Structure formats: structure tokens, C-alpha cells
């Protein structure tokens, strides 16, 4: 089956424009980009997709073994890029998908011109020389809670992940998208996400990479964004005046402006 069908891929904007691909994070779907992606349609070929298990993806093709690691999800992103025969594409990945687009760039460097990582984290747990934001026991507790009562976990965690307590409708929307995901698929994806360590990928990324970081992000603290930008050879960091983990929903104007400025700068030739 075509990857475009499996992942409910939608293509809009200028057919001959430079491609830009938006990939959503855990528990979300392509609808999470609805306030950002349309701003690029006048000049770009805009591609949206649902990761396996999310949105309109074809659950009949779900393979538990394939999706026990992030590499399985990254392979899907890569297949979409290949099937559309994209060239000089900008890949935008939110949260865990920041690492998925990094894997795609490493697999297809000639197809990927640049990366945008929105609230990325290459490792969620702390080590002696790295601060990921969570202790191992925190992750154990998170996954146990998710596995035993996914709907309850979603109702409790989604508003905290979103931040912006003064705008409860944002947390409610994220809760609803979490709850649309099959609990077994969600647990496997969460385990692959929160147990992952993709730090070794960062120095190998050859494409210019923009890291967008928010304040008061319970999933990816500022120090993680700084780490990612430092480890990627052509990395840069922009700290948004936004809180929480999902600026594509909570601060879409700032998010759009930062991505647009970065993309336009890619074609500027130094004097």
C-alpha cells in the first residue's frame, strides 16, 4: 500500500514550490498544524501526514514490532518523502518527531535541505552529564500510569503538557486528540519515545537546523533545546515567547514567523 494512503498524506499549496513537510508529535495528528501550515501554501508545496496510529492513518497496517522503536516511525516519514520524490525539502518535526525528521535527513540527505525541530528532545531521562528533564523513576511512573488508565492519564497529562492554564480549551483539545489514539498503540509509542536516546544522531546532521524552544515546557526544558542546537553542526536556537510544549497551537503566529524567517534565510547568499 502507498505510504501516502497509509499516513493520510495531504498536499497543498504551490505544486512547483519548494516542499515543506510538517510532522506532528506523540498523541497528536496533522490537524495540529492547522494554524501554521496554511501560511506557507502561497510559496511552498505543503505536506502533512498522520503518523501510524494517529488521525486518518490506516490501522490495518499497524505492525507492533515495527513501531516498537522510533526508527519504525522515521522510516514512514522517509517513505513519504521518497514517494512524493521531494527535493530540497524542509522537514518540520514537533516533539518526538524532531528526531524522526533527523533520521530522515540522515537517510536521505540529498532530499532534505533543512530541519526545524519544535520542542525537541533526543533523550528524556537525565544522566550524569546530561539533563533530559526526567529521572528514570519518573518515566517508569509515567508509562505505568499510561498503561493502566490511558484515558485518565490523558486527561491529567495533556493540560500539563500544553501549559497555558489560562486557556483551558487548548488542554482540552490535546486531551481529545490523545484519547482518540488506541491505548495499546499509544503505550508502545510512548515507550519508544520516552526510552529513546538519539543524542548520537545530532552531530551527524548535515542540514541547517532551527530549534524552536518554549519556556516552562514540562517535557523539554530550555537546557535540552540549547543542547540540541549546540550538538547539531549547523544548529541555531530561537526561544519563543511562549509557554508549554505545543507552540503550534498555543503560539502559532510566533511559530510561523520563526519558521518563515529561517526558511527564507536558507536562500540568502552571504556577500
From TrEMBL:
GO terms for molecular function: catalytic activity. InterPro entries: AB_hydrolase_1, AB_hydrolase_fold. Residues 20-258 form the AB hydrolase-1 domain. Gene3D superfamilies: alpha/beta hydrolase (3.40.50.1820). SUPFAM superfamilies: alpha/beta-Hydrolases (SSF53474). It comes from the Bacteria. Belongs to the AB hydrolase superfamily. This is Sigma factor SigB regulation protein RsbQ.
Amino acid at each position: 500500500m502507498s505510504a501516502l494512503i497509509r499516513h493520510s498524506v495531504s498536499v497543498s499549496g504551490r505544486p512547483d514550490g519548494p516542499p515543506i513537510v510538517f510532522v506532528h508529535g506523540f498523541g497528536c495528528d496533522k490537524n495540529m498544524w492547522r494554524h501554521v501550515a496554511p501560511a506557507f501554501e502561497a510559496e511552498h508545496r505543503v505536506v502533512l501526514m498522520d503518523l501510524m496510529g494517529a488521525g486518518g492513518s490506516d490501522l490495518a497496517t499497524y505492525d507492533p514490532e515495527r513501531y516498537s522503536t522510533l526508527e519504525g516511525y522515521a522510516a514512514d516519514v522517509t517513505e513519504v518523502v521518497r514517494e512524493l520524490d521531494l527535493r530540497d525539502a524542509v522537514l518540520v518535526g514537533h516533539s518526538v518527531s524532531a528526531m524522526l525528521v533527523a533520521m530522515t535527513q540522515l537517510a536521505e540527505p540529498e532530499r532534505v535541505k533543512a530541519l526545524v525541530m519544535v520542542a525537541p528532545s533526543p533523550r528524556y531521562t537525565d544522566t550524569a552529564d546530561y539533563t533530559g528533564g526526567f529521572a528514570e523513576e519518573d518515566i517508569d511512573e509515567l508509562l505505568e500510569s499510561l498503561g493502566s488508565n490511558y484515558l485518565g492519564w490523558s486527561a491529567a497529562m495533556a493540560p500539563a503538557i500544553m501549559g497555558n492554564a489560562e486557556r483551558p480549551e487548548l488542554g482540552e483539545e490535546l486531551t481529545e486528540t490523545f484519547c482518540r489514539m488506541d491505548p495499546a498503540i499509544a503505550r508502545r509509542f510512548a515507550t519508544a519515545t520516552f526510552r529513546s536516546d538519539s543524542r548520537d544522531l545530532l552531530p551527524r546532521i548535515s542540514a541547517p537546523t532551527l530549534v524552536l524552544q518554549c519556556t516552562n515546557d514540562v517535557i523539554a526544558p530550555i537546557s535540552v533545546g540549547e543542547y540540541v542546537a549546540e550538538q547539531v553542526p549547523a544548529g541555531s536556537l530561537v526561544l519563543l515567547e511562549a509557554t508549554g510544549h505545543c507552540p503550534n497551537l498555543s503560539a502559532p503566529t510566533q511559530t510561523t514567523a520563526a519558521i518563515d524567517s529561517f526558511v527564507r534565510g536558507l536562500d540568502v547568499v552571504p556577500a
